[in-house]
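User: I'm putting together a teaching handout on how multi-component assemblies are represented. Below are the sequence lines for each component of a complex, exactly as they appear in our records. Could you produce the 3D structure of the whole assembly as structure tokens, so the students can see both representations side by side? Please keep the chain order the same as the input.
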Amino acid sequence: MPDGSGHMQPYLDQALEGASNLVGSGVDWIDALRRAGADAFGTHGLPKRRDEYWRYTNLNALADEAFRLANGAPAIGLPSLPHKLVAELATYRMVLVNGRLRPDLCALDGLPDDVLVSGLEDLMAAAPARLEPYLGRIIRLNEMPMAALNTAFLRDGLAMFVGDGIVLDKPVHLISITAPGDGPLMVQPRHLVVMGKGAGATLIETHVTAEGGSSFNNIVAELHLDDGAKLNHFVFQEEAEASVHLSGTAVAMGADTTYDSFVLQSGGAIGRSEIHAYLNGTGGDCRLDGVYLASGKQVVDNTTFVEHAAPGCRSRQVYKGVLDGQSRGVFQGKVHVLRDAQQTDGHQLSRALLLSPRAEIDARPELEIYADDVKCSHGATAGELDDDSLFYLLSRGIPREEARRMLIEAFLAEAIAEIPLEQVAEDFTTHVRQWLAQNVGNADGQG
Amino acid sequence: MALLEIRNLHATVDDKPILNGLDLTIGGGEVHAIMGPNGSGKSTLSYVLSGRDGYEVTDGEVLFDGKNLLEMEADERAREGVFLAFQYPVEIPGVTSITFLRTAVNAVREHHGGSPFDAMDFVKYIREKAAGLNVSDDMLKRAVNTGFSGGEKKRMEILQMAALDPKLAILDETDSGLDIDALKVVADGVNAMRNEERGLLVITHYQRLLDYIVPDHVHVLAKGRIVKSGGKELAHELEESGYAEFLEDAA
Amino acid sequence: MAADAEALEQVRTIGEQYKYGFVTDIEADFAPKGLNEDIVRFISKKKEEPEWMLEWRLKAYRHWLTMEEPKWQKPQYAEIDFQDSYYYAAPKSGDKPKSLDEVDPQLLEVYEKLGIPLREQEVLAGVEGAPAVAVDAVFDSVSVATTYKAKLEEQGIIFCSISEAVREHPELVRQYLGSVVPYSDNYYATLNSAVFTDGSFVYIPKGTRCPMELSTYFRINAENTGQFERTLIIADEGSYVSYLEGCTAPQRDDNQLHAAVVELVTLDDAEIKYSTVQNWYPGDEDGKGGIYNFVTKRAACRGKNSKVSWTQVETGSAITWKYPSCILQGDNSVGEFYSVAITNNAQLADTGTKMIHIGKNTRSRIISKGISAGHADQTYRGLVRIQRGANGARNYTQCDSLLIGDKCGAHTIPYIESQNPSAQVEHEATTSRIGEDQLFYCRQRGMDEEEAVALIVNGFCKEVLQTLPMEFAVEAQKLVGISLEGSVG
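Assistant: Of course. Below is the structure of the complete assembly, with chains in the same order as your input.
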């Protein structure tokens, strides 16, 4: 039963509008999936402060503005991307504009046999049976209300299948462009990645917004890793100032799989990266890392749930952020170790630097443990630049602003250094430097 | 009656047979050395004798002072007088060595109808024993084995042996990781404990330790059985010829 | 420091696990069952309270009627029927005795059995070197005796039951009661404000260092009664007091409710050390019976350089739900929280602390050690909040969990909210277990399994146990060993 919250109804209505004309309607399991999403979202409503995992990230903007679902993909060209090296990298390229595939901008030549990269909608129309074992299977709708909303829509996005034993020679670059026009515009993209046994791939996602009004991007990605598969996943989130970017990812990991994720968030009025990783087979290795930069009144949120359901798995999380102006950083990391998950090795670290007196960090690193033969730890620190280090640089003649920038960069570099793909690491570093040049070193940057 | 009688001992670890019919008799006052290649079952023997979980005895018997040792729990065996000096002594954070020792010593005393030490008396008791082993007051105040070097850990094991006064002491590769000076201190400590009643079972891979702790009997353990026994010269022979012949013979 | 012979004995006796589980046959005076405005008036009348006190209670009661029982905490418990309980039960012995000689000997015996020999305490006072501890003994809803009152009065120290304080020192009570935990603060605090029956009141005057430990010992005896005690401790400028709270209850099948409120106030340069060794009946192995322990404890460090230190050893109660907190208002004020929480069998605990940094250069330190065994489930929930103006705030938190066996759980949820860049917040948490190797090592040295577990667990908790006043440190260590009986193997 809907909770009666008026704010949720306009979104639900849009999901149900013209449902029968949608691709996939008439296929029983797809109809059931959309309905389940609508029901779950209806029951929960828009997340509010009293929802445990949304208490620090305020979604009133969604209640206040009437975001409308985008209608088709406008004919804009590929913008110049903020990341030079990645842009120049040879990749298999997929481009979505307002959540809809733009085949003319894609570059998928030379994909090996047994690898399928397609628009989700196209696949729903052509071969829904291929999607059935995977789509909607691992998202826990009652735990992820915004993913439930996305499921109620279920339209277009990326569908990628990598066959057993195939290791892709080039990364797949998914470029997501939001073109709000006059706004307020809503986009609900849905992605699915299925890695076969022993398969390997790198997925790079870039999220940018074209000039225009405000936008709301509600993304869901489901990633399936069969035994022995390995997936590297890098995300640049650089939406415009007036955008709300919510991203929910669920990863199901089989035995001896590796999922290595790095998220750089520095855009949006509200940016949330929520990752649920389920370690279902022994020997799984999950790395969730991220860096965030916020200023003005931005809210940047990294929320992770790592569930150790099988024994002998490892998980590591390192999130580092820098907060300036009146921005707010949120880190919520939960490591859940189930009863049978003996020999779990799970670690988590959140470190935040506050650069201004009005910035705020809210961290909640959570451990829920039911197995006794485990090694788990978490740490969280919040503070400012170390005076001694700063003084050391000053005493060597380095001007104050530059010294501060150097120290902050060093603080973040540790996290970025872990990124296995050089071009991504370098682009992230360049981005950090640019951000620092713009935000740190003004007259009002306090020490 | 011998101090320790092991007859036809068979034991498995994770269902893998490691001891395959081991026989050994140790009389009071005797020092026996067991040498053997890696994987021969040396540590397994020490764990089976001290009663560690995970080691299953599938056949044979062990009599300690005439009593059935295998029927006793690990701590019972300790209180009866069996002591194992571990190859890798474990750390117990938050528990000072002196507290640990006093608890153990008092448990054994009470078992034999004696009265426990109070804190002050115990400090005196242990300091006497510690002096000869170069174990400082500082080490006693630190948490058990926490932050100890290899040599410190081994000296601490010998100190425990001195404090607990066991009837049978099993030294599991006590010399591993020690340099000559450390070895001498440890050996002196052990030799100081030799007397007419106490039995010593020295398990070692290298002959070097036996120059300092001179055994009465030397046995070769290969593939889970004693395959050769002799006097202290046997150790030197082994050093020259290695274990190869025993690995073939003991098939 | 090992479990001594007596404790070992207890440990080996099956079925006699909770040695405080006896019931004393003492005639008691009950209010009619249930809760309504009349009961509130009944309680106030029994205590001969002035009008303003009754008004305050009624305001709280009326507010409580508008509130909803909170459901966010992790332990799920059976519904409490608030009407199915007595809110007042006092031993029938007439006026409060003026000296121990006048106290019903049966009552004195109860405390002796609990190891709190009230009479001997006073007798020993003359013996050199014997530690003196002033005790306020609370039996069900009333304080039955307070030792050393006269001696403390000589220094201007007020230590008495809160009922007495309401009558004898109304200005002080009125000034501070409800100023740290307002009557509307939360569901159980509001209920407490309406029906609190007794508790301790302490006032330490300026510049005075209280010469002895003060302690209150709570004992729930009568069936079906809830215990709602209220404690208020005020440390005036430059004063110091160390206070210990202990509690036990008999073994029963039904759950009993304990909803207490403790308010501490420290003015400039004052310090309060508050220690709790809680050993309520935890329920049996299957979780039947046991105390529901829902407590609001809060300290207002109002003065500059003031300090409050909470130390707790929790081993009892079926369900524990408490977050001793410090509001660090005064500049340079310090809040500390040291806790050992042990849950065994079917106990549930959701506990932690809140440190709110408001003034400048405030510091907080949290060391929490949780030990879970049997089928128990334990949650640490801590909040460190640095408000905007709290320049130079420092927090260090360490939460460690120890799991014994594979059927229990430990849940750590720290909330770190910082609005000030010059504040440094550091949080670490680890989870571990008692290693097979460690156990075997101890056993090979002659200790049996129970002893070995007690030794290792005490080592794990050492940092916290060290902060307890000496007399209670030994008691606490024994308690740790006994609470884990039967948890291994």
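A couple of points students might notice: The longest helix of chain A spans residues 422-439. The interface with chain C takes residues 52, 56, 339, 342, 352-384, 446 of chain A (CB under 8 Å).
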